[in-house]
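To the structural biology subgroup,

Please find below the input and predicted structure for Integral membrane protein, which we are adding to the shared reference set this quarter. The sequence is reproduced verbatim from the submission form. If anyone notices a discrepancy with their own records, reply to this email rather than editing the shared folder directly, so we keep one authoritative version.
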Amino acid sequence: MTSSAPPPDPDQHSADPSGDQRLSARERSELDKLRHRVSALEGAGPSGAGPSGAGRHHWLRSTGSVLLILLASLLSLLAVVAVWANSIVRDTDRYVATVGPLAGNPDVQKAITNRVTSAVLAQIDVEALVKELEQAAAQQGAPPKAAQLLGDLSGPITSGLKSLVSSTVQRVVSSSAFDTLWVDANRSVHSALDKALTGHDGGAVSLKNDQVAIDVGPIVAKVKDQLVSAGFKPAARIPAVHTDFVVFASKDIGEIKTYLRVLEIIGNWLPVIAVLIGAVGVYLAVNRRRALIGIASGVFAAMLLLGVALTVARAIYLDHLPSGTSDAAAGAVYDALVKFLRASVRAVGALALLTAVGAFLSGPSRAAVLTRTGCRRSIGALRDVAVSAGLPLGAVGRFVHRYKRWIGGVILVVAAVVLFTWSYPTTAVVVWTVVIVLVAFAIREFLDAPPTEPA
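Predicted structure (tokenized):
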């Protein structure tokens, strides 16, 4: 006969020590903290606004972070323009590198040829030349009818002179000597360009009639010498001619001059201010990784907007040219002036895009985890093969394992300093810097050899 087990005694059950009573003092303290945290989160509710005010605090942080990120994105656009304007106005080498290639541009050469040809022909009195021919024919005993025929040659003589002068100017402009003349002239007048864009006229670069123009008088003098050497003696009587080649023309040149002056003043500080504001915005964010992706995306969008604005500004600039100006030459001048600005836009945009991708790959998404895991396992397998082949990691591996996060931080800081202190980074500089950073992280992962625990 079997007997059933007696029912549990409630008093005996209450006398047994509970799970909490079996905890140590340290574990009990941690458990109390976790319970307090859970209670606070449950009391906050779905909206996150609890009696402690944590939800409101997070809302204020998020709002401030978003505003700072938007401001930093806008300032990044202005910073790129400011650095470009400051380099054009203040850096002579940068200015010469900007306008120097224009000497070999066919459209610019054609425009200068037409301008110089007109200036030279305006100094030659064709009627006086015809009268000299008539007098010379009369002195040589030519019949009066022949002298009269010479008087009817003013039209052909003018056409021939234009052809002669134009071909001479073309030879001068297309020669290597013109490249040197053009570069030297632009280098010598760069200080005058600084005065023109900051409101002080004078020198070979002038600001008048809403135009920024370069005096090409030295080219006229060169053509004069060429004509005399070719046997055209009347060219020796051509006086010193000062004629302008328009680099920029707009009825809003006064406002543009003011904007350039402001950008020139803040050009060195605006990038620093933009970076600091962006860093504060990321620091205030509740999710800093997402904030980093947000500011990188904002800067990338700002660079896209600036690129579109440069294209639109080119059409506006060509529409504001005075009549008689070569659109092709003016377009070439505009493209040369904004060449380095476009390069900076591409470089900053590439850096922002790569930063956003890097922040995404460091996150908890499935694609990011799979990417990191695959890279880590591949490098780990390579390390195991090398160690099996006799490569001793030893103290180096233990050091890298211990300070792995610090080493990664140093790599990123060094890359940031290199990019920030580079005078004029290009897209190639950004891409190669990122490649070097990835190689450095791969080497860090390869050298990461955790110490083996004893069996």
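Summary notes: Confidence is low (pLDDT under 50) at residues 1-5, 9-21, 43-52, 200-205. Residues 82 and 266 are 7 Å apart (CA to CA).

Regards,
Lab coordination
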